[in-house]
Amino acid sequence: MLQNHDAIRRTVKELPAGVETVTESDDPKIAEAIQEHVEWMEYRIEETNPIRMRDPLFAEIFRHTDKIKMVHENTDKGVRVTETSDDAYVVKLIQAHAKAVSGFVERGFAEAMKNHPVPEKSSDAAGDEKQRFEATTPVIDGVGKVVRLPRAVQQPKVGAKLLVDLTSGAEPGKLNPGLEKVAKYLNIYAGAGELPTEVQIAVVLHGGATLAVLNSDAYAAKFGTETNPNLELMHQLHEAGVDLYVCGQSLIASGAKPDEVVVFVDTAVSALTAVVNLQSDGFAYVPVSR
What we know:
This protein is α/β, with parallel strands linked by helices. The protein has ten helices and nine strands.
């Protein structure tokens, strides 16, 4: 029907409890296809058998099929459909859906490729939407901002295990941006999805990131700074349950020693062994090179 949308005409009458629509065509084959489509849609509503779930409006209307009454009557050239609900919000969904289908008839595939917005539940909905997309940092305060996307696909899974392979460096005296990404990962699992979700994160530092793990005195002696700017965030990550490892081979090669490593970071034999061991324990590999 999308291919032949120019041969279809449609009217929509809004009712206090929903809509009445008439969709017809002078082409008998298209008229029959319209009737068959409506029968299938009535079945889908009755059985909650959804379609177009990537479209926010369609996904939302199929969440409320138990509150929708749909009645259709074939005409000589198509079908008349009445959709109603006793729920005020669902009435809005029905009316928005009717407008979207009219858009399909008017513009065909061009309209079908769009996402259609979900109508507001109340006068406060606009404020709720603004709040939903407001950046927050639920675990690591002020670092690694995220926005909550409760209806997006690929939601954080319970029990996820991330191995962050951190090789990026930073200028002496500046925070390593890779550590900020680790904070963001924690915040994603805690506050970017529909529900907060537990996650295990292990970080292996080597390459340019190696010396970020030095205690304040060792770092200051190495780089001529007052302190190590990475320690506060690394300590926050540690307190949040992140396991931190540094490559012992990279550490020695950089002119440092294991006893100069800050107390909450463990020295591994090598980044290689740490990465292999953690992956064998079920951690998903996440490289951070910049």
